[in-house]
Amino acid sequence: MAGHIPGRVAMVSLHTSPLDTPGVGDAGGLNVYVWELAHRLGGRGVEVDVFTRRRDPGTPEVVIVGDGVRVVQVAAGPAAPVAKEELPGLVDEFAQRVLDRADRGRTWDLVHSHYWLSGLAGLVLADRLAVPLVHTMHTMARVKNANRADDHLLEPDIRETGETTIVSRADVLTANTADEAEELIKHYGARQEQIAIVPPGVDLETFHPCDQIQSRERYGVGLRHKIVLFVGRLQPLKAPDVLIDAVAELVGRRPDLREQLKLIIIGSPSGPQSTWADALPDAIRDHGLENQIIVRPHSPRPELFRWYCVADIVGVPSYNESFGLVALEAEACGRPVVATDVGGLRYAVKDGETGILVRGHDPVLWADALEKLLDDPDRARELGRNGALHAARFSWDNTAAASLSAYGRALLSA
Prior knowledge:
This protein is an alpha/beta fold. The protein folds into 2 domains: 8-201 and 395-413, Rossmann fold, CATH 3.40.50; 212-391, 3-Layer(aba) Sandwich (Rossmann fold). It contains 15 helices and 14 strands. The strands form 2 sheets. The protein has an 8-stranded mixed sheet, with helices on both faces. A 6-stranded parallel sheet has the order 11-10-9-12-13-14, sandwiched between helices. β7, α6 (178-188) and β8 (195-197) form a beta-alpha-beta unit. The chain is globular. It starts with 7 loop residues before the first strand and ends with a helix.
């Protein structure tokens, strides 16, 4: 790859900024991915301009966030939040504003877009700048639709069409796992030689094995309590309601757990069904679990680390995940994970070694998995120790190295 490393990359994250706090609105694992990758590339001497749509007139146009790394707020549409379903209409304006910078002398060797909206802008940029396009899906409409619950909204046709166009024209597609690569081929007709496997990482400096007693004392959590933790956006896809129902099932069959078991839910509403989260308190009350379940707003990452440390088990009941960053963060902190047997969670969680994978979302099956670990703390600690070793293999430096290899392939093929 020598001689084929880009000097400057235009990274596109149109709909959400890496400056946003994960867990709020549309900010999540993608934001962490863009932030970490940009910084690791900057540390390797690659200049990175991250382009995102301006949503706050009070934010500076250019924010320098590290050596060679800038976040550029692009004026496209109002400087205010815009519903995601309206963002496709702003793609061309967004791309033109970025091209205006090229006309003023700013150039890039490669475009790396994240998510389908960014990919549509990335196609315009790569074509006009005559540079390669590397695209990372993060999630795919056809995969989400195939794994959704009956009451979940379908992803719109415009997204499926957009993703198909991106796949047909991108020089390189990066996939988190081999399974995701197969989904790109199966659902979108991607070519095997077009795909590079680039596993995401985990911030091992922030998330690492920790002292549970100290963390519980800091947050006033009793040592006798058995804590299940959920971290994520409060939306149907992430399915915190599955854990609520599982806890109801568990205390129903085990009255002895009613005083000990606590479910802590950390996150904020997100997406077109953001009002969905409004029903969670009613579900908690209907189950009579007001004393067992605590719902907290999003937490900054250093604080989130401490909440992982508080937990006995971390639950990840998502209907689909391209990888499952929460699962990796929890494992890095030495916590066993109970997760859905789907998508990238099969890679983030090693069933029977670092946690338990549950088929589907039946609350009875989830209660069974939680009960198994809550009743065997020695086994839970063993899974946690294994999880910390497993997570240590996933560093963002490795992600950056794999990304640079993908960039080299794109530059060679251009």
